[in-house]
Sequence to fold (299 residues):
Amino acid sequence: MPFTAYSTAHHVLELPDHHPFPRYKYGGVAEVLRGEVQVRPAPALPWEALALAHEPNYLARLRSQGLSRQESLRVGLPWSESLLTRALHAAGGTLMASRDALERGLGMNLAGGTHHAYPDRAEGYSLFNDVAVALANLRAEGFGGKALVVDLDAHQGNGTAVFFQNDSYVFTLSLHGERNYPLRKEKSDLDVGLPDGTADQAYLEALEQALSTGFACKPDLVFFNAGVDVLAGDRFGRLSLSLEGLAERDRMVFSRVRQAGIPLVIVMGGGYNRDPKVTVMAHAQTYRLALQAWSKSRV
Fold:
């Protein structure tokens, strides 16, 4: 098994009963993929690594005080040490996956995609913006190329847009529900807002055009936020893709990346289907398709 996937399944997030955050999926996806890819525990990211991207005052406040009640409401998760610890591991998994991508062509984190975190605050299930942190650290380690962020979560990557809004070496692409969270959108390099209920054909047509625009920047590295909350039946997604439509979405991304001959980092993103088995199956499908695509390219 030449590829590695990093997982936060070894860490338990403490939540009240019936909380909508799908903590089940992280262990579920890791278990389903075990035997197909080397699954390793994601390491905790050191605070110095976070400081390359996030504001010092925000990090200092998190370490000393945690989140206030108001901030916790904005995040949608109650403050606890387990929340902080898990966020550190999830971000660590994305950095490790990014290093793998530069070395092997493909890196995978079975967590991450916390694209609502801003440089100075947490929002929407996101304490740290794992993609922004990973890229900041890659640059500190010598990476000097262009990056493309392909964010196909059902919700706009508002925090990611702000992180890179003045960065000419990063192109941010977000394909999302126009009327979905966040109500106030930030400006990505390319935002494609879709109406509620968008299904396979219209989604894939919009994606094809968006990818053509994104790859025109000639990136040297791609980050793919592979949220599966675009599926029909998702509690928060408001779009209506089928599992086959989701598979075609992923194939389109992987085909573009392979044609360009550049490394890819996959982060999990959102997925809140009313049927937990569908959420796990959909996420696992994305990683399996990537493994198939990159295994063929190595033959």
